[in-house]
C-alpha cells in the first residue's frame, strides 16, 4: 500500500467532517435535554430532536472510521 497525498487529504477531511457531525449531535442532544428539563420545549418534538442528534452522531462515527481508497 502506497501513501497517496490527495487520498490522505480526502480521508483526513472526511474524518474531520465526521468529528464535526459528532460534535453537533452531542451539542444538539445537550441543548434538547436542557430545554426539555426546563419545560420550555414542546414535549411532542423532543423525540424528533433526539432522533436527529442520534443520526448525526451515528453518521459522524461512520465518517470517522471510514477509509477512502
Descriptive report:
- The protein has 69 residues and is an all-alpha fold.
- It has one domain.
- The chain is built from 2 helices and no strands.
- It has helices at 5-37, 46-65.
- Helix 1 packs antiparallel against helix 2 (46-65).
- The longest helix is centred in the first third of the chain and has 33 residues, at 5-37.
- The radius of gyration is 16 Å and the shape is rod-shaped.
- The termini are close together.
- The mean pLDDT is 83.
Give a brief outline of the structure.
77% of the residues lie in helices and 0% in strands. By secondary structure, it is mainly alpha-helical.
List the main descriptive attributes of the protein structure presented here.
single chain, 69 residues, mainly alpha, 2 helices, 77% helix, 0% strand
Strand count, sense and closure of the main sheet? Answer: none
How far is the first residue's CA from the last residue's CA? Answer: 10 Å
Structural class: mainly alpha
Instruction: Quote the beta fraction.
Output: under 5%
Count structural domains: 1
Could you list the spans in which at least 5 consecutive residues all have pLDDT below 50? none
Number of helices: 2
Q: What's the number of extended β-strand segments?
A: 0
CA-based shape: rod-shaped
Rg over C-alpha atoms, rounded to the nearest angstrom:
16 Å
State the share of residues found in helices, binned by percent: over 70%
Written as H for each helix and E for each strand, in order along the chain, the element string is: HH
